[in-house]
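hi! just following up on the protien thing from before. the input was this:
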Amino acid sequence: MSRRPKHAGIYQIELDGWFYIGKSNDVFLRWSSHLTDLFYKRHHNKPLQEHFDVSNYRNLKFTILKICSKKELSALEKELIQNFPEQDKLLNVSLRKNKKVSDT
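and the predicted 3d structure came back as:
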């Protein structure tokens, strides 16, 4: 029996013009985990959960931004978050370039 290949990479979740950027050693498994946590109202990112709770789940869009090695994940994720053009629409509060005091 063949196993499903794992792909390490950086991904983006978009929901009604709001964005979350993440990393994973297995982006497809992580996407499934995000969906489960959002539907069961237990997602670790409170702003994403709040937007999901008031939105139509069909507006949720998952995009793989970059497939990369596991060694590159953290640095690439940080770079993509800090260079994201719409910082005010980014739901990653801990790594944003223009982080507000209230975001900590």
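The CA atoms of residues 82 and 96 lie 6 Å apart.
The domain at 9-103 is CATH 3.40.1440.10 (GIY-YIG endonuclease).
cheers
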